[in-house]
Structures are given as C-alpha cells and as structure tokens.
C-alpha cells in the first residue's frame, strides 16, 4: 500500500470513528431526555410539548441547554416552577456532560435517583419544593464538583450521609431544610471550607457543627 493510500485509509477511518462517536452522543442524550419526559405524568402548561422529533434538535427543546464546544451534549436542564408531576427518571444520569439540574417548585414524587452520583461534571442540583421521599443518596458524594445542593422542602427521611462532608469540598450551598431528616448532623459538614449557606432547619436533627 502506497503512502497516499495509507493516508486516505487513515482519514477515512478517522472520519468513520468521529461520525460514530457523534451519533452515539446524539443518541445517548436524546434518549435520556425522552426517558425523562416519559416519567412526567402531569404537564399542565405544556412545557414539554416541544420535546419531540418534529420540533427539531433536542438542544432547542424547552429547558435544555447544550455545550458550545460539544454541541450535541446537554449541559443544563432547567424546568423550574412548571408544576410538572411524576417521577424524576434515572435516565438523567446518562447526560454525562450535564452541569446544572434545576427542577424546583414542581410536583415530582418518588426518590432522588441515586444514579445522579455518576454525574461527575455536576455543579448544581436543585430539586427543592417537590414531594420527593426516601433518603439523601450517599452516591451524591461522588459528584465532587458540586457547588450547590438544594433538596429542601421535600419529604426526605433518614440521616445526612457523612460522606457529603468528606468529598464535596467545593460545596458552597447546602439546603436540606424542611424535610423529615433524623440523626446527628455529621461533623464532616464542618470541613466544607467553601460553604457559605447551610439550611438544616425544620428537621429532626441533633448536634452542632464546629
């Protein structure tokens, strides 16, 4: 094989691999969003009516933002205050480039998906003012880039995972208020040197933070 043939073969292979990777990116994020929509059982304002293939690329869907550098990857999902009902699909954890999830003031029930712990780029998670129950997932401790964690005004129970104060060292705002959390406030919370806002009131917690 001549050098020119080798170069052509290399360029062709590179193009095929790039096309395959781009197709996988589109499919993964597209399917993840559709699975999330499938978990929404109530949408009185029709906010998700644009979430279909006839409405164009998913990056143009209501509440969805994508990366400029990686135009087929979702970086933010903001569906705040839309009175959505249903459950939060674990499929969001397949949005591996997502940095912001804003779903406050809706009517979501069910549990906080522990799969969120796979979102290593996540910086802000706001699920406040819903009807979520179950526990605060310990897996969230894997989201080491988190700066904002707001699970306030839900129906969460159990204890605050000690691991949150051990690994979320960039956390600036932690809101777990107005739930049914019990147990002792983890002393590890005191290690969060970047923390400026801490809301734990209206729970059944004990102890202090030094």
Question: How would you characterize this protein structure?
Answer:
By secondary structure, the protein is an alpha/beta fold. The chain has one domain (3-206): Ribonuclease Inhibitor (Leucine-rich repeat, LRR (right-handed beta-alpha superhelix), Alpha-Beta Horseshoe). Helices cover 20% and strands 22% of the residues. It contains 2 helices and 14 strands, in the order αββββββββββαββββ. It has helices at 3-39, 164-167, and strands at residues 40-42, 64-66, 74-78, 85-87, 100-102, 107-109, 124-126, 133-134, 148-150, 155-158, 173-175, 180-184, 197-199, 204-206. The strands form 3 sheets. It has a 7-stranded mixed β-sheet, with no helix packed on it. Strands 8-10-12-14 form a 4-stranded parallel β-sheet, with no helix packed on it. A 3-stranded mixed β-sheet has the order 1-4-6. It is globular, with a radius of gyration of 20 Å. Residues 7-25 have low confidence and may be disordered. This is Leucine-rich repeat-containing N-terminal plant-type domain-containing protein. Residues 1-23 form the signal peptide. Keywords: Glycoprotein, Leucine-rich repeat, Membrane, Repeat, Signal, Transmembrane, Transmembrane helix. InterPro entries: DNA_repair-toleration, Leu-rich_rpt, LRR_dom_sf, LRR_N_plant-typ. It is found in: Membrane.
